[in-house]
Amino acid sequence: MLANKSVRAYIGLGSNLNNPVSQLQQALQAIANIPITQLSKISSFYQTSPMGPQDQPDFINAAVEIQTNLSALALLKQLQAIEQRQGRQRQIKWGPRTIDLDLLLYGNWVMQTAELILPHPGISERNFVLYPLYELAPSLKLPCGKTIESLLSNNKLDPLY
User: Fold this and answer.
1) What CATH number is attached to the domain comprising 60?
2) Is 57 helix (H, G, I), strand (E, B) or coil?
3) Over the stretch 5-19, which tens digit does the pLDDT of each residue have?
């Protein structure tokens, strides 16, 4: 399924199992190979505490900016296929994972279906998403009109890589 024109989208990446840095690097290569999609920018890698159960390793998080001619749902399917190839298992909500790829923003689209919610819910409360997004696009505005900068809390995340 194709979009009518090229759309700028943002994807969040996270891993805390099986060499997380390597998992992110492998996912970045796979994202770069998604059909009719161009990887534009990659954020630094950030080490963050788990959001859910605390009895798991810290996460390595990043974000990317892409230009794609895929529809939002077709892009989501591509991301889920990458997760499957890298051994993602969905057993515990917010639990440990080899790779997590979240479609954060797809242009200025706002949608809510059983398969996909855009913008991704929780962006505004997650520093591990906000800091990489801010690094990629400091003046980025969410469809609601709020800027990423205005959503950043006083908590500072320093890039790991």
Assistant:
1) 3.30.70.560
2) coil
3) 899 999 999 999 889
